[in-house]
Amino acid sequence: MNPSLTKLFLFFLHVCIHRALKSVMANSDFLLQFQEFEDNQDFTQNTQESTTVTIDDPIKSRKQRNAAGTDFEGEEDDPLENSDKTKLLSGERKSAPFWTFEYYQTLFDVDTHQVKSRILGSVVPWPRRNFVEVYLRSNPDLYGPFWICATLVFAIAISGNISSFLRHHGQPKYKYVPDFGKVTMAATAIYSYALLVPLALWGFLTWRNRTIASLVSYSFMQIVCVYGYSLSIYIPAVIVWIIPSEGLRWCSIAVAMCLSGSVLVMTFWPAIREDKPRIIIAILSTIVILHVLLAVGCKACFFSTYETDPSADNNEPLKAGSTLSFTKAN
Amino acid sequence: MAEAEDSNKPLFAGLSDISISEDIPVEGDISVPVGSQNADNDFSTLDEPVKDTILRDLRAVGQKFVHVMYPKKSSALLRDWDLWGPLLLCVTLALMLQGGSADSEEDGRPQFAEVFVIIWFGSVIITLNSKLLGGTISFFQSLCVLGYCILPLTVAMIVCRIVLLGGSGVVSFAVRLIVVTASFSWSTFASTAFLADSQPTNRKALVVYPVFLFYFVIGWMILTFSPSH
């Protein structure tokens, strides 16, 4: 090897080690001063400024709305507000680093009535209520999204199996085989929708927030929460799909998509309101289109809608059916 | 010694009050109690015959089966947890549910590994869920309870296979449906009876729902089991 290159490399290594040692020494001096706890809290608070910004605004705007007398929630809200107020007043919530168990416990800090009200709020779109502002209020949880997605996966697999069984019931050559591969396919599709789309949306909104100062900015967990709860309307829709009537199936898809799509749009409207009109339209239409694609894709994959061919002798009509339904849709 | 203590005073201030002078002799006696060798024999199980060991474990497993079939709020399942019973039940269920490998008719049936993974992975996720929600039960105790409460579903699987020997018409389907529904609700009720006490009061439904979903899925797999001709 070239001697001068090795010397250069060693020089850089030396500089890096020197700098690293210096920073370690500085930190260890800082740690030996027996004032650890306050210093550590300041340290972690600095890294979580993005979440602290959102805490203030929703509460202030809610108080303004309460003062204006347009309080719709009334009695249901008071126990929520009291428990949330004490949590907010007691200090920084998510101060644990993300590799400890306690951090994830703060993400599961919900009660039964809170989960129920969040599910209801994600199904019924109310024009002046923002889901994040009203229901989440700086307490996003992972319980709802995770278990709603799990229920949806199993509901799709089970209803798909039931509907194909009912469709082929009278035929002599058909032997019912529970198709277990559906569960893995459904799980992959739904969980990646519930995780990747919020990630992309959060990344995009954070990037836009640098150029356009917006009042409302959502953290990643809040967006995951909104998307997870918005999938809850599909569970009854999927159960309705068992009934082998095409009109009913498309009707239920349309209703479900309208309800949850409008909740999503109304949630994200305040975050992108000040942006250019073209970007607003682009984002909103992307949200709606992805939502529609998920619903229609699940229906096409799992609830095949072909006309049966009684002379067909194969033992695997399910696989043939899904390809036939794709050709029919095209 | 004193000077060293003075210079360290701000940091180790409390320790300077304790001083050990060299005048006090250390007293006491060290004796190895010979008599406790006999007491040790009760706890050391290395010397007993293998039959005794196996029978003791089998008796413990059997006792827990009885606790599951008649679920009262006793803490025996939680206190002396073991994972032999769940392993036995899981392997039995997976063996009975699995599809053949080369036969194309049984393509859709779950493989042995799939059932095994679903049961254990599902139990682990439910346990993590209950711990994250603030439950006081330990990880293995929860796995033990969830595994033992699969017993009614295993019994239902055996009954379903016997019923299917007699034909697979509508009557047999109705009988199987009733049996599986009864055993699935029994499983859910039994595990709730053991697990619910360790949860905070306003989150009990949040913990019970995943258990319900878990046994529902296993019951569904049992109900849709179709035999090979």
Automatic annotation (TrEMBL), chain A:
Superkingdom, natural source: Eukaryota
Name recorded for this polypeptide: Protein YIPF1 isoform X1
Source species of the chain: Danio rerio (Zebrafish)
Gene: yipf1
TrEMBL record, chain B:
Residues of the Yip1 domain: 70-221
Membrane-topology annotation of the record: Multi-pass membrane protein
Biological processes, Gene Ontology terms: endoplasmic reticulum to Golgi vesicle-mediated transport
InterPro entries hit by this protein: Yip1/4-like (IPR045231), Yip1_dom (IPR006977)
Highest taxon in the source lineage: Eukaryota
GO cellular component: Golgi membrane
Entry annotated with the keyword Plastid: no
Protein name: Protein YIPF
Lineage: Eukaryota, Metazoa, Chordata, Craniata, Vertebrata
